[in-house]
Design goal:
Structural class of chain B: mainly alpha
Oligomer: heterodimer
Helix content of chain B: 55-70%
Number of strands of chain A: 0
Helix content of chain A: over 70%
Largest sheet of chain B: none
Strand content of chain B: under 5%
Low-confidence stretches of chain B: none
Number of domains of chain A: 1
Largest interface: A-B, 35 and 44 residues
Largest sheet of chain A: none
Radius of gyration of chain B: 18 Å
């Protein structure tokens, strides 16, 4: 059992108590709902500013966020080489019932939470360039990750660990990696501009 | 491709189409917007995007193993976004080609005044035409 496993047992026992809340959490932990919203927000940031200088700054921000997500996904793959502990639904009866009610079994290891890692990496990448939208993405990332915790898919430590990896990756990519990879981002933006997509 | 994958592609394409209309209205990109009034662009974009989500989650249970892996989701999102951009460009060019046939000289060539910045003055078709015309003149 991972540290804090009793939290999963306590939280998942509430699944089934309030059907409306379960429906909401079922939507929030869905594979498509929050990730598509996050991507659409990033697309909106890419295009939606009238000032060209500000728009270019935000396009660099979105590039950073995308690179952060890619590197965070690779880090999750590396972590997945070692299976730290089983999923909550494989160990706890209440979590198994929660998973059957809200989601479906997953083939990936429990730690770190893939969902938390990539969503926090994206939110951090965006937060560096646009604070308000970054906070919105942090809220969405938190809801998505906590919904997976509520659904018995992850222990809290999986979520916290994934979020930490995502935030660290986002910061390192935005503050260290991207400035040092110039002129690659500039060339990429110039190419995108020639295709009228930037 | 399974039904969920096709549905997902449609969700993404419509979601991007709506988002591009909202963003075009916000950025005052007349050549990318379907409408003259920005408010109509906001409303249309929101309705299309929200409608796509409503349809996607209403037609079936989406919390089932879908066989769309994370990397496939990213690839399909990119494909959907490109499809939405092509549809937007084609439709706005058709609708507004006569209104904004070409960009003015101030919107050509400079780094900050190229790419989608040109779409403040003309459609994508108009921008391409402007660039080709300038190249011919240069020669």
């Amino acid at each position: 059992m991972p540290p804090g496993a009793q939290m999963s047992e306590w939280v998942t026992q509430f699944v089934g108590s309030v059907p409306a809340f379960d429906s909401f959490m079922g939507l929030m932990c869905n594979d498509f709902f929050i990730p598509v919203i996050v991507c659409l927000i990033m697309l909106g940031l890419w295009i939606g500013f009238p000032n060209p200088t500000r728009r270019e700054h935000l396009q660099r921000t979105i590039l950073s966020a995308c690179v952060s997500v890619a590197i965070a996904s690779l880090l999750v793959e590396l972590f997945n080489l070692y299976d730290f502990w089983p999923r909550p639904y494989e160990l706890l009866e209440s979590a198994r019932q929660a998973m059957q009610t809200l989601h479906y079994p997953s083939g990936d290891p429990s730690f770190p939470s893939n969902v938390a890692t990539i969503s926090f990496a994206a939110a951090t990448g965006v937060w560096v360039g646009h604070r308000k939208v970054g906070i919105v993405l942090y809220v969405l990332a938190s809801i998505w990750a906590l919904a997976r915790f509520y659904a018995g898919m992850h222990f809290f430590v999986d979520i916290a660990g994934g979020a930490a990896i995502g935030v660290l990756t986002g910061f390192i990519v935005s503050k260290v990696l991207m400035p040092r990879t110039e002129p690659i981002p500039t060339v990429a933006l110039r190419l995108a501009r020639s295709l009228y997509i930037a | 491709m399974g039904t969920t994958a096709l549905d997902y592609f449609l969700l993404v394409t419509l979601g991007c189409l709506g988002t591009i209309q909202i963003a075009a209205a916000s950025a005052r990109l007349k050549g990318l917007s379907f409408f003259r009034k920005r408010l109509v662009g906001y409303i249309f974009g929101a309705l299309v995007a929200i409608g796509a989500f409503g349809w996607f989650f209403a037609v079936g249970n989406r919390n089932t193993p879908s066989a769309i892996e994370g990397a496939q989701q990213v690839g399909m999102f990119l494909a959907g976004a490109i499809a939405a951009y092509i549809i937007t460009s084609a439709v706005s060019s058709l609708i507004k080609y006569r209104l904004y046939p070409e960009a003015t000289a101030s919107h050509c060539g400079e780094q900050n005044n190229s790419g989608i910045e040109m779409l403040k003055e003309t459609t994508i078709l108009g921008a391409i035409r402007t660039i080709l015309k300038r190249k011919q003149e240069d020669q």
